[in-house]
């Protein structure tokens, strides 16, 4: 059993103790950050992601295995397609960037592909920043950064992100490239999948903007990160790449605002009982108590974005929380937070009659009673209107 946490220890040590002894941290990627930003009120996800806890393993240990994630076949297919897109020094990828985003520039007959390898994520982040600076200063050239490493501060904890590619244009502007294995049929793709890709790209843009701000010098403005990203997908049912420019200004604004609203990880960690640990190897009773010590904000949308969704859904239903019915329903009910409160208000047993939500529930209950009464055996059917 890990020793109790000390209140004054450094954040990194606190998070390591929460994760468990000898448990490696799970990297927080852009997909997870986009999902976290979509539900900024969930403290449970914020602390688990901030501590690098493997939520899939945690869900399995809690008895609610996750069905969330990509299949091995999809990952293999995606890796093969990405390798095809980036073959020959990224010639096809750069052609698509030029064609879809920067026709006024010279065609990328040849491009620089800097080496980005370094020791550890911090080293790779520094190497990426240096490569971006050099590429921006080398005006008139195309530069392709293959799997650069970016750092983004999230709730007081750094997250290291790895986009598929970043292209530096001859004018010094930067473009994020997302490579996906879902197809574009007749020039368009599944809107839900495109939306998810746009939210991930928005996270990369936010991280790149932080890099650009650090590169700012008195003699030169900050490099511009383009608000249109390139989405590369297979064309129709082939393995040939095609691309579309996606405007992510809305996703970038929403994601930035939601990430800023996240409670700092250190603030959440300080509220937890001493000895709290999310190591999946711990006994189920202790693990359940540790998870339940952090409040969650469950909504049905979590089923498509979080490995702990099944566990949180069961707890939400057991507590009768109206959030299990959806965020739109929760918003309509105002201060009524449980199903029991809603039913009591509808029956006139509780609630302020001047509350619009209570008044609407009571009116709905009256209409329901009238409808059931009219359908009862022996009830007189309403008289049909006379025809003139």
Overall description:
With 388 residues, the protein is α/β, with parallel strands linked by helices. Helices cover 46% and strands 11% of the residues. The strands form two sheets. It has a six-stranded mixed β-sheet with strand order 1-2-5-6-7-8, sandwiched between helices. Strand 1, helix 7 and strand 2 form a beta-alpha-beta unit. Helix 2 crosses helix 9 and helix 8 packs across helix 9. The N terminus and C terminus are likely disordered.
Descriptive labels:
388 residues, alpha/beta, six-stranded mixed beta sheet, two-stranded antiparallel sheet, 15 helices, 46% helix, 11% strand, globular, disordered N terminus, disordered C terminus
Summarize the structure.
The chain is an alpha/beta fold and 388 residues long. It contains 15 helices and 8 strands.
Helix/strand layout:
Blueprint: H1 11-19, H2 30-38, H3 43-50, H4 55-61, H5 72-85, H6 87-101, E1 111-112, H7 120-137, E2 142-146, E3 150-154, E4 157-161, E5 165-168, E6 174-179, H8 191-215, E7 228-234, E8 241-247, H9 249-261, H10 265-270, H11 284-292, H12 309-318, H13 327-332, H14 339-346, H15 356-375
Parallel strand pairs: 1-2, 6-7
Antiparallel strand pairs: 2-5, 3-4, 5-6, 7-8
Quaternary class:
single chain
* Residues in helix, %: 40-55%
| Main β sheet profile | 6 strands, mixed
Shape: globular
Mean pLDDT, all residues = 86
Structural class: alpha/beta
